[in-house]
UniProtKB/TrEMBL annotation:
GO terms for molecular function: methyltransferase activity. Keywords: Methyltransferase, Transferase. Pfam families: Methyltransf_19. It comes from the Bacteria. GO terms for biological process: methylation. SUPFAM superfamilies: S-adenosyl-L-methionine-dependent methyltransferases. This is SAM-dependent methyltransferase.
Length: 271
């Protein structure tokens, strides 16, 4: 049967499951692994890139909880549970930290619910970033997130899955607008580095075709396009940079494959 009763379609590849495979996870099917193999052919360092994204996420959450005092997170496009989930990093600093995970892929809800069955301060909801009100007005969001206080809005590797005609800039703005002063917004995103790195730019163009043919999404945007998602928030040091360069730990493993300049991240603060 193609579609299981829980809405999980095993005949079509899904972004969250391909990504899960690249991270060494087990929540993926043959069709996802086929797409992942195509990705690996043009980007053998794709797993390094995925891990660099998770490392960026971990450093951002640790900074926000341990140093900036943020205690509530809205993580949109959260993906399948893996090692170092947002609630684990945040709750290691403060067990009361609250996390709302959001994803439109039903498999995320299925696995997230199992993981979070006994965690009162963390939940996962099935919703689509293209419908911001369905996220902001969701009863679980209202229960766990107090928008009159600082929030960590997490958009890790989701906006590049929003096509240009779906207005990613407008969507980012709608979420920014509800944040209280002192809130933060973190973004990781595929980048086309242009003339600064021609080989990486050519790879980005190829990867964009491969993703769109197989997954229906995937945009490698320019640095300026990605920075626009932060609006007038202050982008903190070191700016929007390759993931491994964002406040790297001294002994961190730094990979240097073709994806290095095609995957960037940044953190901004609302004044
Ligand atoms: C590459 S994964 C990133 C997972 C995690 N945020 C990370 O950075 O490690 C992208 C996730 O975004 C989700 N996603 C894609 N489009 C979405 C949409 N329109 N609304 C909600 N989630 C979406 C996918 O299902 C997938 O789980």
């Amino acid at each position: 049967m193609a579609e299981e009763s829980n809405g999980i379609d095993t005949t079509r590849p899904s972004v969250s499951r391909v990504y899960d495979f690249l991270l060494g996870g087990k929540d993926n099917f043959a069709i996802d692994r086929q797409v992942a193999q195509m990705v690996l052919k043009i980007a053998p360092d794709a797993p390094d890139a995925a891990f660099a994204n998770r490392g960026f996420l971990r450093r951002v959450i640790h900074h926000l909880t341990a140093e900036a005092g943020v205690r509530q997170f809205l993580d949109i496009g959260s993906g399948l549970p893996t090692q170092g989930n947002v609630h684990e990093v945040a709750q290691a600093v403060d067990p009361e930290a609250r996390v709302v995970y959001v994803d439109h892929d039903p498999i995320v809800l299925a696995h997230g619910r199992a993981l979070l069955a006994t965690n009162d301060t963390t939940t996962v909801i099935e919703a689509d970033i293209r419908d911001p009100r369905s996220i902001l007005d969701h009863p679980d969001t209202k229960r766990l997130i107090d928008f009159s206080r600082p929030v960590g809005l997490l958009l890790f590797s989701i906006l590049h899955h929003i096509n240009d005609d779906e207005d990613p800039e407008g969507l980012a703005a709608q979420f920014r607008d509800v944040l209280a002063p002192g809130s933060f917004m973190a973004i990781s995103h595929f980048q086309n580095p242009g003339d600064a790195h021609p080989e990486a730019a050519a790879h980005a163009a190829n990867a964009e075709i491969l993703f769109n043919e197989n997954l229906g999404t995937g945009r490698w945007r320019t640095k300026e396009e990605i920075l626009a998602y932060f609006g007038d928030m202050e982008v903190l040091e070191p700016g929007l940079v390759p993931l491994a360069e964002w406040r790297a730990e001294p002994d961190a493993y730094i990979f240097s494959g073709i994806t290095y300049h095609t995957y960037v991240g940044g953190l901004a603060r609302k004044a």
